[in-house]
UniProtKB/TrEMBL annotation:
Stored Pfam families: Fumerase
Keywords: 4Fe-4S, Iron, Iron-sulfur, Lyase, Metal-binding
Family designation: Belongs to the class-I fumarase family.
Record flagged with keyword Metal-binding: yes
InterPro entries in alphabetical order: Class-I_Fumarase/Tartrate_DH (IPR051208), Fe-S_hydro-lyase_TtdA-typ_cat (IPR004646)
UniProt-recorded name of the protein: Fumarate hydratase
Domain named Fe-S hydro-lyase tartrate dehydratase alpha-type catalytic: residues: 12-279
Transmembrane segments: none
Length: 281
């Protein structure tokens, strides 16, 4: 049995908050550079250049990539041979988020009461925590700082099980079209298919965690992802909604078995400021 101090979890989450908000990951940078090379719109190319320049400045100056530093969503994989000591997991995660957002002067966007906009929690807690027990004696922490503008454009639909793939395609594409400029494209489009009402939304969010450029392991699903990406990029929404051939950088689909009478589909929209980092303890 391996022991991990709760304070170590807190300090790791703190560091992830700072890193995720100031350092755009290499897969996103590579995808943006590829998009710059093939973008046909002059305004689209200029916007992508500015996004890349912004990322360089943010990393160098340790400044937020975007003023919306998001909701802290934490994915924890806990090895079954791990024991957390001198504290509780949830408390440690929230302490790390609190430290990260306060010491990094990151915008605190969480309101304590959804209907009272003046009830800010003042440290961006509580985090949304998803935990999973896995084999081994390692603890993996993934932190996604999810912006409100993109999250607001996400959608979920409980389809009839006889629904065709074409109808599902139209729902996904229409969701992106409805998002327009409000989700700050270029986007990453996470799609969940299967599970149930609550599970499919989590599938869609987990789809965002797959590195951009890495397709699903299933050849059928990988082909579907590429086809959807091509259709989305033909919408002419373009970078920041001003037209062009780069509306999305990736479409990632995650699937799970579901009840025979159900066909849940969720689309989780992510902006180009994809703030995800992970660590292993």
């Amino acid at each position: 049995m391996r022991e991990i101090e709760a304070k170590k979890i807190a300090s790791t989450v703190r560091d992830l908050c700072l890193e995720a908000n100031t350092n755009l990951s290499e897969d996103i940078l590579a995808a943006l550079n590829k998009a710059l090379a093939r973008e046909t719109s002059p305004s689209g190319r200029e916007i992508i250049r500015q996004i890349l320049q912004n990322a360089v400045i943010a990393k160098k100056e340790k400044l937020p990539i975007c003023q919306d530093t998001g909701t802290a969503i934490v994915f924890v994989e806990i090895g079954q041979d791990v024991r957390i000591i001198n504290g509780l997991l949830v408390e440690a995660v929230n302490e790390g988020v609190s430290q990260g957002y306060r010491t990094g002067f990151l915008r605190k966007s969480q309101v304590a009461d959804p209907l009272d906009r003046n009830s800010n929690t003042c440290d961006n807690t509580p985090a949304i925590i998803h935990s999973e027990l896995v084999p081994g004696e390692e603890l993996k922490i993934g932190l996604l700082c999810k912006g409100g503008g993109a999250e607001n454009r996400s959608a979920l639909k409980m389809f009839n099980p006889a629904t065709s793939q074409t109808e599902i395609d139209e729902f996904i594409i229409q969701t992106v079209k409805n998002a327009g400029p409000n989700a700050c494209p270029p986007l990453i489009v996470g799609v969940g298919i299967g599970s149930n009402f609550d599970g499919v939304a989590l599938l869609a969010k987990k789809a965002l965690l797959r590195p951009v450029g890495r397709h699903a392991s299933s050849p059928f699903t990988a082909k579907w992802e590429k086809a959807l990406l091509n259709r989305i990029n033909s919408l002419n929404v373009g970078p920041m909604g001003l037209g062009g051939t780069t509306t999305a950088l990736a479409v990632n689909i995650e699937k799970r078995p579901c009840h025979i009478s159900s066909l849940p589909v969720a689309v989780n929209i992510e902006c180009h400021a994809h703030r995800y980092k992970e660590a292993r303890l």
